[in-house]
Amino acid sequence: MPIVTIQVTREGNTPGTNAVTADEKAQLIKGVSELLRDVLNKPMESTFVVIQEVELENWGWGGLPVPEYRRQKQAKES
């Protein structure tokens, strides 16, 4: 019984959204389940997928909260 946890930041991929859409989540669940079936021969009906959305302020990278990391990275690229 595989259990897969996917963590993503809580932000949308299109303007005006602040979360992963239900359709995007369904695609992730299907894709991960199919991957485990195809690679490890795990039945899809016994695969559990958990999607956790994390607020940007609760996700760090390079010693900084993600929003600050992105600001600094963008400033360096400009």
From TrEMBL:
<keyword id="KW-0413">Isomerase</keyword>
<keyword id="KW-0614">Plasmid</keyword>
<dbReference type="InterPro" id="IPR014347">
    <property type="entry name" value="Tautomerase/MIF_sf"/>
</dbReference>
<feature type="active site" description="Proton acceptor; via imino nitrogen">
    <location>
        <position position="2"/>
    </location>
</feature>
<dbReference type="Pfam" id="PF01361">
    <property type="entry name" value="Tautomerase"/>
</dbReference>
<protein>
    <recommendedName>
        <fullName>Tautomerase</fullName>
        <ecNumber>5.3.2.-</ecNumber>
    </recommendedName>
</protein>
<feature type="domain" description="4-oxalocrotonate tautomerase-like">
    <location>
        <begin position="2"/>
        <end position="66"/>
    </location>
</feature>
<dbReference type="InterPro" id="IPR004370">
    <property type="entry name" value="4-OT-like_dom"/>
</dbReference>
<dbReference type="InterPro" id="IPR018191">
    <property type="entry name" value="4-OT"/>
</dbReference>
<comment type="similarity">
    <text>Belongs to the 4-oxalocrotonate tautomerase family.</text>
</comment>
<dbReference type="GO" id="GO:0016853">
    <property type="term" value="F:isomerase activity"/>
</dbReference>
